[in-house]
Amino acid sequence: MSHRPWPLRRRLVVLVALLAATVIASSAVASTLGLRQTLIGQLDGQLVLVAGRASDEGRDRPREPSDDLPVVGGRSPLDFPGQRTGTLTYQVVGDVVIAGVIREDFVVSSLTDEQVAVLADVPRDGRPRTVDLPGLGEYRVIATEQPDALRVSGLALTEVNETLAAYVARQALVGLAGIAVIALLGTWLIRRELRPLQAVAAAATSVANTPLDRGAVTLPVRVEDANPATEVGQVGAALNTLLGHVETSLEARHRSEQQVRQFVADASHELRTPLASIAGYTELIQSGQVSGDEATHALTRIAQESSRMGLLVEDLLLLARLDAGRPLATAPVDLTAVAADAVTDAHAAAPHHHWRLDLPLDADGEVDLTGTVVTGDEDRLRQVLGNLLTNARVHTPAGTTVVVTVRATDREAIVTVEDDGPGIPPELRVFDRFARGDSSRQRASGSTGLGLAIARAVVEAHGGTIELASRPGATRVSVRLPRADALTVSRRCPGPSPARP
Ligand SMILES: Nc1ncnc2c1ncn2[C@@H]1O[C@H](COP(=O)(O)OP(=O)(O)OP(=O)(O)O)[C@@H](O)[C@H]1O
Ligand SMILES: [Mg+2]
Questions:
Q1: Which ligand does the CA of 428 lie closest to?
Q2: Mean pLDDT of the chain
């Protein structure tokens, strides 16, 4: 048969009650023993007096015969006035034997042979002893032997025993009441102190019953009154913290799941458009209905769309690689050169924009290259600047001025790309994947909304930050990267990086 273990509360109460019972019982035993010793000591004092009276004192007193007991020294040793009940004497003086006891009703009665036999055996050293007399009960006796006589005097222990019994009974009663009070008080106190534990158990059970494996999970359960000043409260507070962490991680997991789902959906959607074009033009050519220039145009469109698909797939792969935390190449990269090349390319691509390059100059008016060298993957950093300048080119009208500034601080190299174009609507989360403005969406050139997402992923993989501030007439993107000569940020380990074609 399996026993259900007792709950902690009951076990604690029983333990406390047992402990209290042990303490109370020990103190009762000790005080009873002490009291017994005191009472017997007092009785012994009286016994010594009684023994004295029974021997010497009697000789000086006038004889007052009062009973039929033989008389020694003029009168019976039991016959002194003031002798208490329960006083016993057994004397053998010569041939005369006195053996009597004053009973409860003050009548002196003779001792029986068995009682006398017990008294005759008491060691005769004058020291008080306890004997059990048949028919009379316990007595404290003193026996002395003199040349002419054997004298044994005794006093009944009845009163002492009665007092002790009453004392023990009272102790037991008080002790039991004390234990009951302690048990009741303990139950109340322990129940009160452990209440938060029940709350912890309830919260944990409720969480255990919540399915956490998928979807959006909220854990509204928390342990209330978790007072960190108490141990039980600390358990509650720790559970609350744990639940908080679990909730945050579950939220993060759900968010990332949704992002991945959204990303896959967006990527598929983006790939479907060029695929549909390619399929359409292929069918057109296969049908044999087009020839000459039309067929050439169809083939050109197929080539354009495939290359657009290729670029898109490259971008997606790059993002996936950066997401997976794959290592980037690490080589010194001079941001001044990268920025200068990017501006030259942009100028060639959009001659009707005004392109300006603002580089740091030293005291002699020469370009100062100190501090603009970073460690990283040159191709990827070129791609970042390319994306920023492409944005400044394609999302702004002709005549827009674009200024690319390179600067260095103590720890960072900073490149900013600033244009005075129309700006970005504030509600557009431009760093999100596939985030595009309406005008970009309508553009036939096929903007995918990955440019800034890639820029951010690359910059962050280099331990840097990217920020955007935009209002109509002023859009500025700042890229901050740790300087190669002040590199303190922990970076990914070096490794080969497949360059974008
Ligand atoms: N300098 C800018 N001026 C105005 N709008 C901008 C500028 N830069 C970005 N944007 C807006 O931010 C959106 C997101 O830019 P992002 O570079 O991420 O994607 P994209 O340029 O649309 O596509 P992709 O760069 O992948 O070809 C753009 O669609 C555009 O609406
Ligand atoms: Mg772009």
A1: 1
A2: 86
